[in-house]
What we know:
- This protein has about 180 residues and is of the alpha+beta class.
- The protein contains seven helices and five strands; from the N terminus they run H-H-E-H-H-E-E-E-H-H-E-H.
- About 35% of the residues lie in helices and about 15% in strands.
- Strand 3 (about 90) and strand 4 form a beta hairpin.
- The protein binds flavin mononucleotide.
- Flavin mononucleotide binds next to loops.
Amino acid sequence: MKSMVMEVIKKRWSVRAYRPDPVPEEMLMEILEAARLAPSAHNDQPWHFIVVKDAGLRNALAEACRGQFFVAEAPIVIVGCADLRVARGHIGGFMDSYPVDLAIAMQQLMLVAAELGLGTCWIGAFSENRVKEILHLPPCVRPVAITPLGFPNEERQVRPRKPLSEITSLNVYGNPLK
Ligand SMILES: Cc1cc2nc3c(=O)[nH]c(=O)nc-3n(C[C@H](O)[C@H](O)[C@H](O)COP(=O)(O)O)c2cc1C
């Protein structure tokens, strides 16, 4: 059994060096479409994706990402935001669903980018207030995740993962699956 999705999952890595070459517009649109089609709680679709191409804004964002300057190397930075006016959903009545919704959409976006030979890197370390200022976000719109988008300028990195036995149980917690 050969999963095509698995092929792409294995192809993705967090790219931290980018070539300045532009991203073809059709690729960008395909990547955004992948995010648009993501599932969300109550189908709220609370997301808004800001495609930042302006070099000055990309530099400002990199600075806001605690000085992770590789972010601005890429010709595009995508900022995945949640609109709290739309994101009313709660998982099980207690947990905000919008960070989960955004995470799924961003991951779909990143996988399609990887399939097309483009690099991304989930950036979670940023100053929310600075990002809001830079992008003129209204108070009800929160940045959840940022990624550079561009052609990688580094060899593929394979980072270790825990073995399946350590992260799974059968039936009840702690009962080995195998
Ligand atoms: C919620 C979250 C926040 C992250 N924040 C950052 C970040 O601020 N900067 C960075 O370089 N990588 C960040 N990463 C990427 C992880 O470091 C990376 O996914 C992990 O080390 C596994 O490596 P891989 O993606 O190459 O497989 C983040 C990933 C996640 C899921």
